[in-house]
Amino acid sequence: MIAAPSVMLIDMPVRHRGGGLALGRYYAIILETDEERAELDRFLDEPRSAAVAPDLLDRRPSAMVADNVLISRYEPPEEGWPWVLVCRWPEPYSRVARDTPGCDMARGCYTMEVFEHPEDLEEHSIALLEQLGTKRGLSIRMLTPRSLSRSGTA
User: Using one digit for the tens of pLDDT, what is the confidence trace for 65-110?
Assistant: First the structure.
């Protein structure tokens, strides 16, 4: 989807794993444009004598603007990789997070959850949708690759 970001997960070497990483091992990066992907690729390709966190996009403000909550689910590209759920929150929600100590959003508007098992992702998604459903005037619509391709073939 054009409005959804891309996600890069880096499976960190054992010596660099820990509690600050998704599932204790994945460094997650949200990419909004092809230019950012190219910038990150150049950063990762630079020779270094020591490990450096690839955090060049972590605090960069989002270039995407949305009035709605966008929830994107990413399936593993192959066996052994986790499932990822990314939420892009509009300004009223992200403002509350900025004002809440300990509540950080990537790029000022994204939250991300990483799951080893699809059942855990499903359980979390249902709870999230139930919580969002309590908000007045909120309309929820599920978009899938199949529903998007159907609308483009008319």
Answer: 778 888 889 999 899 999 999 998 888 888 887 788 877 888 888 9
CA neighbor of 7 nearest in space, from 92, 79, 88 = 88
Answer whether 3's CB lies under 8 Å from 66's CB. yes
Helices (H) and strands (E) in the chain, counts: 4, 5
The dihedral through the CA atoms of 21, 92, 133, 140 has a sign that is: negative
- Residue 105 to residue 98: CA distance in whole angstroms: 8
Radius of gyration of the chain (CA): 17
3-state helix/strand/coil string of 24-54? CCEEEEEECCHHHHHHHHHHHHCCCCCCCCC
List, in order, residues 6 or more apart from 81 with CB less than 8 Å away. Answer: 9, 11
pTM value is: 0.82
- What letter would DSSP give residue 122? H
Could you tell me the two tokens for 82? Answer: 């986790």
| Residues 10, 27 contacting (CB under 8 angstroms) | yes
